[in-house]
Amino acid sequence: MNAIFLKIGSISIYWYSIILLIAFILGCLILFKESKKLEIPKSKIEDFIFYTIPICLVGARIYYVLFNLDYYLTYPLDIIKVWEGGLAIHGGVIAGFFCLLYFTKKNNINLLKMLDILVICLILGQIIGRWGNFMNSEAYGPITSLNFLKSIHLPKFIIDGMYIDGHYHHPTFLYESLWNLIGLIIILIIKNTKLNRIGLISSIYLIWYGIGRFLIEALRTDSLMLLNIKVAQLISVIFILI
Questions:
Q1: Inter-axis angle of helices 89-106 and 111-135, nearest 10
Q2: Least packed by Cβ within 10 Å: which of 57, 111, 211, 228?
Q3: What average pLDDT score do residues 31-56 get?
């Protein structure tokens, strides 16, 4: 895939950044809309976004670096080279949760009510964000055949994008994006029924995403590792238990 969206002189703007920006904007719009129901002033939400997004990015980078520590101890200056890739969503989620703890405590807001809003923004961002991985030709699975990709009725552009280093690969980015899309639909249906309770949406997200990520991560070829354990699978189990 051509990962560059636009090139101006020596400056390259990548599809990955454009896709993440779209996810960020849509997530913020949902957050503003839903937070009105909790009667949270818009200015407080703006402050929350202003501080939380950079902290989440730093958290995502630190998490990635920690699980590639041998490399970054050898090349410490590469830690700041985020434009070369290396962000892990679990690190961002963990950092964001601590920001949320501080925000809700400071403003006397129910943590679970706020979390029920944010997980909707988060899962939408994950649905969209995985397409950034596609544009970067990353987050793919093991080698498969052209016939298999055709048999699951994938569009030609996805099949072509899964031809990497001389082989066709499983589009695990797509598997996760679709899994999360189904999860979002389930969450939105339950959210608007009498079944909904404080914390239920957050619980559904943790279980649904945890199960999907655990299964799909088994196919990933670029997983972060802790000894012989795929870290994302370990975190997924923790999410489910929570």
A1: 150
A2: 228
A3: 94
